[in-house]
């Protein structure tokens, strides 16, 4: 997928495992944060989030969750194209261990780096497990950091940072950066909801909302929406490409685009439900017919239309003599 870093090879040398992947000249989004001298542009960050969701959605269709989504694992190539990397590495490292054991537990808590504490979802912290909703939480925390210049929770140590999620939502992004649009402010806080049921229902809904919002931002800025190489954006050594752009104006979603996005989400949900129900219906019919055949039930419709029939013996012909 164009938004997932390709792995060309892997192996082990002198006892050290390694992978060979595409070289990403633009570095990670964490590097973009470090180099930025002014706030990152809202349209560009929303495009990054959209591309990230597309890559994650494709991986999820192949049964892969990320488990460690953060700016340091999202990369840009020389053309400014975004690709997601390092799928599942934190899941392997922490082996489903809660990041914060119960207070009366004798188990020592794992050593959690601050970069994981900034973006980990509440259910991962308390149970050690997460699903799509957990990756969406991490995406919201990443977007919050990129747009405001600080993570959602800023306690001094990792344990305090992890506990802070259970005390309520972080400050509104617009309280830290008033020029952000109300829509992206509401979306980020929704992604950072404590309970998974309060977050977006899945990648499809998020793709529709971000696509509509990026179009509105590009239209308001008078841009053609085309991606340009990093070098042509005026980026030089030590200067973030996003730092060359002025901050976005206050914007709102276009009503027609929002209605279209919602309708697309409903259609996707109906199609997914249908494709799930068809195999179940086929299996149910096969099960019923198998039961009827084995038990030789006396159901009228089964006897009339489905039950196998043997040909009736022809009594008009004499039986052959028995030798």
How is this structure best described in words?
- This protein has 323 residues and is mainly α.
- It has twelve helices and five strands.
- Helix content is 46%, strand content 7%.
- Helix 2 packs antiparallel against helix 6, helix 2 runs antiparallel to helix 10 and helix 6 crosses helix 9.
- The radius of gyration is 28 Å and the shape is elongated.
Output the keywords.
46% helix; 3-stranded antiparallel β-sheet; 12 helices; two-stranded antiparallel sheet; 323 residues; elongated; 5 strands
Question: What's the layout of helices and strands?
Answer:
Blueprint: E1 7-13, E2 16-21, E3 27-28, H1 29-35, H2 42-61, E4 74-76, E5 82-84, H3 89-94, H4 114-119, H5 122-127, H6 132-148, H7 158-164, H8 173-176, H9 182-191, H10 203-221, H11 255-295, H12 300-306
Antiparallel strand pairs: 1-2, 3-4, 4-5
Helix pairs in contact: 2-6, 2-10, 6-9, 10-11
Please work out how many helical segments DSSP would assign. 12
Spatial arrangement of strands, main beta sheet: 3-4-5
Count of beta strands: 5
The ordered string of helix (H) and strand (E) elements is EEEHHEEHHHHHHHHHH
What is the CA-based Rg, rounded? Answer: 28 Å
Mean pLDDT metric: 79
N/C terminus separation: 76 Å
Secondary-structure-derived class: mainly alpha
How would a crystallographer describe the biggest sheet? 3 strands, antiparallel
Instruction: Please indicate the percent range of residues in DSSP E strands (runs of 2 or more).
Output: 5-15%
Helix fraction, binned, reads 40-55%
Global shape = elongated
Report the uncertain regions. 231-254
